[in-house]
Amino acid sequence: MRKEDCFYLGKIVKKYSFKGEVLAKLDTDDPELYKELESVFVAMGNNLVPFFIERASLHKDTLLRMKLEEVDSEAEADRLMRAELYLPLEMLPELDDDQFYFHEVIGYQIEDERYGLVGVLEGVNDNTAQALLEIDRDGKQVLIPLNDEFIVKVDRDNKKIIVRTPEGLIDLYL
């Protein structure tokens, strides 16, 4: 399995017991969806290694407590600390029409109701306090906060996102 065919689920952040159990911080608003997993891919170096899950449960509502097959000691769990977890893209839950996963809209055109065509979405920066749409406009970068109030429509058929930004925001970049 290749990372390109998967989505980032979260990261192993802590050992839970001396029997190899680990806690994973999931990158989701709904960790409940993932407590019945049968397996997960663990990033080890440049490879994704499949691990079967013997049992899993939510821990303090935000962490997934897992007992992985063949991880039976603290030392074996230590090797997995800070390892990233992945699942195949087809396991992503379905979203409403106006919602989207960041990876699926890369390359979409961004059009503002007032301004017109802004440019092409190159990425979504979610490492800031508020996620930002990173748009390329003829070699210049335009940043638009990813805010539900700004998103008017996600047109998957035409690979376009229609936005309504505050007056002057786009002009700041151009």
Report the span from N to C terminus. 41 Å
Total of helices: 1
Count of discrete structural domains: 2
Low-confidence region ranges:
none
* Helix-strand makeup class: mainly beta
Shape: elongated
CATH topology description of the largest domain: Elongation Factor Tu (Ef-tu), domain 3
CATH class of the largest domain: Mainly Beta
Count the strands? 12
- CATH architecture field of the largest domain: Beta Barrel
Helix content: under 10%
In this structure, how is the largest beta sheet organized? 6 strands, antiparallel, barrel
- Series of H and E elements: EEEEEHEEEEEEE
State which percent range the strand residues make up: over 45%
Report mean pLDDT, rounded to a whole number: 91
Instruction: Please give the radius of gyration in angstroms.
Output: 20 Å
Sheet with most strands: strand arrangement: 1-2-5-4-3-6
Name of the CATH superfamily of the largest domain: RimM
